[in-house]
Design goal:
- This protein has 2 domains: 1-217, Trna Endonuclease, Chain: A, domain 1, CATH 3.40.1350; 218-333, no CATH class.
- The protein contains 10 helices and 14 strands.
- It has helices at 5-21, 91-105, 135-144, 158-173, 184-194, 207-216, 237-241, 276-284, 290-296, 325-332, and strands at 26-28, 48-50, 55-57, 60-64, 74-81, 122-129, 147-150, 220-224, 228-234, 246-254, 257-261, 270-272, 303-310, 313-321.
- Strands 8-9-12-11-10-14-13 form a 7-stranded mixed β-barrel.
- Strand 10 and strand 11 (257-261) form a beta hairpin.
Amino acid sequence: MAPSAHQIAGAVLEEAVLSILHPAGFTALDLNNIRDDPTIDPAKPPITIHGRGTDHQIDAVADPVFAYPFSNPVRLLIEAKAYSINKRVGLDIVRNAVGTLKDLSEFWSPRTNDGGRVRRYNYRYAIFASTEFTKGAQEYAFAQDIYLLPLRGSAFFLPVVDAIDQLREYFKEDPQRWKVGWTLSSYRRRLHNALKQDNQTNPDELKDIVDGVSRVRVGLIAIADRQFPIFLVPRNPDVIYGLNESEVVQIFYDKNGWYLRRPSETENLFSFDLPIELFKIYATRSGLNSIQALHLKAERLGQLQAFLLKEGRVQLIQFKLDKDWIEKLLKNI
């Protein structure tokens, strides 16, 4: 049975996101080496991870290239939703993520039956979406440590989102375009191969997606106040590799979303989307209203931190923000 057009679009979005996360210090799980990982069943493609109660099929997994002190190895589980523009990602998606995360995190014992040790991971779950999240989804995600990263409001990533929208309609208009024998895994490999820089022959329906991802090529996960992730999409790849370890930046907003820019320059460095309801919850959990809370946290929100993998070395980038960006945020809340 052929997958739905929404499933195809979501799988393609996952592959697109994975392809640009490597410079942020995340490497897609190497399917050729999973036989050495006792938490994964190599006989069940694409990636099947053992949980305490059952096995879970995970479509996108990324491991950080750096290790966190005083922590088991971190493993990032990625889910992507590419719905039509008027359909938001709801509570059911986040609720499923919470159940999966809990079950996977509880699959561990000091030793296996044959005396071997079972590897233990510190799992994290991120949901990328080409549309907005519902208020209920954002509230539940905040309470359960599921990270939500919307994409449509990021202007530099919007060409990729638009191309995936077109791909979804392409298969929706004529389901027979999905060839017999294709699977979501094999179709993702088509995109994965097409995204290689040395690949000159791309499937026609994937051309605009490949072009959009190639213009971006890299991305960063920045953290505000050490806990709120923001997906920074550069204007072009050169922006990333021209960064200093400390950058003073200003935040701008227009109808297309948010931007980071150096004070002395006119071109934006990065675009990003911001789940406003989630940010309001983060700001007001102290019991203050959003205006009071954001003013109180202005100093703590005065910088973003991001890891960058540059020439094989992990580098910490600190973006120091202009002091009036909270006022700009309040105008949009």
